[in-house]
Amino acid sequence: MIDKIDREIIRILQADGRASYTDIGAAVHLSANAAADRVRRLLHDGTIVGIHAAVDPAALGLTIEAQIDVKLRATTSADDFERAIRDVPQVLTATLVTGSFDYALRVACSDRAGLAELTETIRNKAGAQETYSRLILREVKVGMPASRRSGAKGKGGGRRA
Question: Please, which residues bridge with residue 67 across strands?
Answer without folding.
Answer: 106, 134
